[in-house]
Amino acid sequence: MSKKVQYELEYPVRCSPGILYEFLSTPAGLQEWFADKVDFRDNVFSFSWSGNVEEAEVLDQVAAEYIRLRWVTAPKEEFFEFRIRVSDVTTETILIVKDFAEKKEIADQSQLWDYQVKDLFHRIGN
């Protein structure tokens, strides 16, 4: 089995960090763009897609800055993260997605994130 590597994607967003964070860290916000149904209990999100359920535990978070999650079936060192940065130069809000994939799958996984984030932008009116 190939070892997964971390990769990072950046998306400029026309939205305040506080509003964006709500879409990244709450069941209602995540259900708008990330999964068909989202529940949260005991620091674990349950994401449902077409009846399939995957769980991710919250590893760390700072309001309006980032949330880091790990699929409960993933190795301890792997996670996915939504980070919000505001450019010092342009004051533009930037969403940074960090995830892990095998090298040969990074392009496909990036495309999947592009699709998901496009849906997020549609929901926030971007």
UniProtKB/TrEMBL annotation:
Residues of the START-like domain: 1-125
SUPFAM superfamilies xref list: Bet v1-like (SSF55961)
Pfam families linked: START_2
UniProt-listed InterPro entries: START-like_dom_sf (IPR023393), START_2 (IPR045736)
Protein name per the record: START-like domain-containing protein
